[in-house]
Design a protein that fits this description.
The chain is mainly alpha-helical. Among the domains are: about 80 residues, Cytochrome Bc1 Complex, Chain D, domain 2, CATH 1.10.760; about 90 residues, Cytochrome Bc1 Complex, Chain D, domain 2 (Orthogonal Bundle). The protein has ten helices and two strands. Strands 1-2 form a two-stranded antiparallel sheet. The longest helix is centred in the first third of the chain and has 28 residues.
């Protein structure tokens, strides 16, 4: 006789229990998946619609660009730095947007002013250079700045007359800097350093000297081209001659000599 196989009473509950466990596991997995899908928009590490941090070339706001690229030399808020103050309406008016943008982009050869434009080996895009230039003029330029059209030229390639420059220095600058340029006292008991020190002259370019004569150092209350003598503002020839006299004090090997 053929044996008949049938489920024992003990086997039926075990099979049902296994089925229940399988369905429960599947339901749990499905629930987890649904929760995961619902929370995908906030999943850790998933990029958002916009990046949390901008790419460097996407930064176009003036305060950030200035702080990251200019503050070290030109000072916080454009003043009190080692280089000329950019927060100076007279300087910005005379230099103009074109020169300001060119210098920012290409730098100044043989000085500490580097090129910032990518096209000249720097790190900033053309848009960022424009944002810096426009930002300086918008933040620190003034409508009541002296008319740049009547001011001496920002740059002058002609050779000045050192003898006439010395006379101009005595007339316009000697009261604060000493008749020989070796230093003196400005109003407010401010001690002025030597402008004919060979080390100082080795560190500053001809254009740097010209820019300071034209625009002054506003944070120190220094004069600009039209306020040395309001009745007789400096002419272009005066400025060029002053630079010629000052640079005539340069030496071949500036600095403190070493003992032999």
């Amino acid at each position: 006789m053929t044996a008949r196989h049938s489920l024992t009473p003990e086997a039926v509950p075990q099979t049902c229990d296994a089925t229940r466990v399988t369905w429960a596991a599947r339901a749990a997995i499905a629930f987890v998946v649904i929760l995961g899908l619902a929370g995908c928009d906030h999943a850790p590490g998933k990029p958002g619609v916009t990046p949390l941090v901008q790419h460097p070339e996407q930064v176009l706001d003036f305060p950030t660009l200035y702080a990251q690229n200019c503050t070290a030399c030109h000072g916080v808020n454009g003043k009190n730095g080692a280089a000329i103050s950019l927060n100076n309406p007279v300087y910005l008016a005379i230099a103009g947007a074109g020169n300001t943008q060119r210098i920012t982009a290409n730098g100044v050869p043989n000085t500490a002013m580097p090129a910032f434009a990518k096209s000249a080996g720097g790190m900033l895009t053309e848009q960022q250079i424009t944002a810096l230039t426009n930002g300086m003029i918008a933040a620190w330029g003034k409508q009541d700045a002296p008319n740049a059209e009547t001011a001496p030229l920002y740059a002058d390639a002609t050779n000045g007359n050192a003898g006439q420059g010395q006379q101009a220095f005595i007339a316009y600058c000697g009261q604060c800097h000493g008749a020989d340029g070796s230093g003196g006292h400005a109003p407010g008991n401010i001690i002025t350093g030597s402008l004919v020190d060979p080390t100082y002259l080795a560190l500053i370019s001809d254009q740097g000297l010209r820019s300071f004569i034209l625009a002054g150092a506003t944070e120190q209350g220094a004069h600009d081209w039209h306020s040395y003598s309001p009745a007789h503002p400096l002419t272009d020839a005066d400025v060029t001659n002053l630079v010629a006299w000052l640079t005539g004090h340069r030496v071949v090997a500036p600095g403190q000599p070493y003992k032999q």
